[in-house]
Amino acid sequence: MELWQQQLKQCITTPAQLAEHFPVDVAALEAVVERYPMRITPHYLGLIREIGDPIWKQCVPDPAELLADGLPADPLNEEHLSPVPSIVHRYPDRALFLVSNVCAAYCRFCTRKRKVGCGGHSVSFGEILDGIDYIGRNPRIKDVLLSGGDPLLMSDRMLGDILARLRRIPHVEVIRIGSRVPVTLPERITEELCRTLRQFHPLYLNTHFNHPAELTAAAAEACGRLADAGIALGNQTVLLAGVNDEPAVMAELVRGLMRIRVRPYYLHQMDLTAGTGHFRSRLERGLEILAALGGEVSGMAIPQYVVDLPGGKGKVPLVPGYLERLGESALLRAPDGERIVYPNGD
Questions:
Q1: Boundaries of each Radical SAM core domain copy (predicted)?
Q2: Which residues are catalytic?
Q3: CA distances from 285 to 229, 243, 281, 288, 345 (A)
Q4: Is 0.90 topped by the overall pTM?
């Protein structure tokens, strides 16, 4: 058994286990975990400095997740954009390929918290083959994004098999992987994994750092191995209230990402997902942070601030031309020109 697999076996998955490290209300947290699973790797647990700090908020269940916030479980309408169970086909030339339903750590703000980590939503090998077949039958698909769950929790052999099958499809030009293991389980980024991945260029990997405290030496080493294997690295940060919604914090994060050869790519407004309302900041706050970064860091380090519109309408950049009205709601223009009324935080 490899080190990363040993670390997975030692994850915190119950409030009782967490109570061995921090004083918590076990009963209150158990009610949350019954609905939304909990998993914290030893590495990520070690980053917590105190209850309620930015790392704690991202990984420890919160009773606020059970509040009736009026938000949908599937805000991006993925279930209705899924021609086969493992594929979400929202854009004509791109396909989201859900190859896994598990993550090394379960983020409390996850847009797929309705299903990720839940036993009834596991991805079978047959569903993966159906997804590859769908991609092969649709020549307009040029770009495939492997996500889930976390694709890098698959074995090297399984992941290599999927990538090889995709590479045999003539019209697939680009393959991307979305993974948070460089942040939560850096031990997973082994030399063996990198040797597997480097066979399938052009290959891109977007990871998910949200706070400077996540920029550890182990994470830097993991990203360095991927970069040395020729994999282009980007980062997608989610704007989270009480975690990173301060200009100084975001500036420190993007500078740190550039140091470890990870290009800041997206700054996401929180999706309108049930159980995550307590993480949402107002759109104005994101624009203030973006403006502050403009005077503090180079253009290469400034991510694009985007909102993924409800109902699967697609991502739009948050720039003055799109923000026609702010207040309790914002009026945004979708890529097709439709105007969408978007709730503007609490």
A1: 89-296
A2: 90-91, 94, 103, 107, 110, 112, 271, 308, 315
A3: 37, 13, 7, 5, 10
A4: yes
